[in-house]
Amino acid sequence: MIELTRRAAPVLAWGLQTMRRMTRTLGISTNEAGLQWVTAALLIAVLGACGRDDEAMPVQTRLAPGAAATVEQVDEDPMRFQGKRVRLGGEIDKVYSPRAFELEGEGVWWDEQILVVTRSPVTIGGRILTEDDEVMVTGKVRKLTVAEVERELGWDLDPQIEVEFRDLPVLVADAVTMSDAQAAWSEKEHPQGTMVGLMRLWSAPDLTLLAGQSLIASDVPVRRKIGKAMWIGYNELGQILVVPNDAADLELIEEGERVTISGTVEKMPAAAEASRLWNLPEELEAQLGTAPVYINATRVEEAALDKMTMNFRR
Predict the structure, then answer these.
(1) What pLDDT is attached to residue 273?
(2) Mean per-residue pLDDT for 13-21?
(3) CA 57 to CA 51: how far, in whole Å?
(4) Helix (H, G, I), strand (E, B), or coil: what is residue 125?
(5) Strand 169-178 with 113-118, pairing
(6) Cα–Cα distance, 250 to 218 (Å, whole number)
(7) Which pLDDT does position 172 carry in this prediction?
(8) Calpha distance 257→243 (Å, rounded)
(9) Are 280 and 229 in contact (CB under 8 A)?
(10) In a domain, 249, yes or no
(11) Which of 146, 184, 207, 270 is spaced 20 to 30 Å from 162 by Cα?
């Protein structure tokens, strides 16, 4: 009987969550006690099957830290994922605050959801997350015991969240990446969010609006190097000026090599001032005058592939 109850517990949790979601979706007003009674009745109906089909129960495998999972898997078997670090992908269905949102997966009959909360606000590319954003979220699965989760987060949950998600699985996230892989947020490394790659720089209608945003770009060709600056890009038309904080970084880089950089997008100073600051020839002032931004690089290094090639040659 104890083993039967243990196996039935995830079914009860899933059933209660499903009933809450159905009543909310259909706009049905009911109290928590009523939902629990209905769910208990559903559970009783399946207890016999659980007992008779003992050999058909799936074998639970050990979950690797940070393993990819689905919202549906966590919803249907929360005990398996409790306390585990996972990576979930989906679409944001509802935003409660910059530190709490509902992530929607892909269900068979209806989409499954899980509450995602963070210790600090999530900002990506200078904005907070919004509904319909497609994201990849990494964190630990917890049971929403209000006091324990609030203690871990360091802030009080909204009363609406407490009612809708009480005792259900919740993901305490420390990293969020946009599914287009062009922007990311990390609680420790990028608390203000960062752009990934150069695509947003080339596609933004007004580059000056990106000033102040951090950026990481990997495996980008160096088109040319002059004075204290270099131009990077995948072709002649799509180049951007990079000025390393440490001039020594530039000395180690050659034209034609590929680099990985991280830094901040900054507004371009007046052409004459930029030419003076970075030891650029006067004939480049016209080009500088048409460039709205540049990258102030805190790190510049050879891309991994170029490093491997150099080591092989040696």
Answers:
(1) 95
(2) 54
(3) 10
(4) coil
(5) parallel
(6) 16
(7) 96
(8) 16
(9) yes
(10) yes
(11) 184
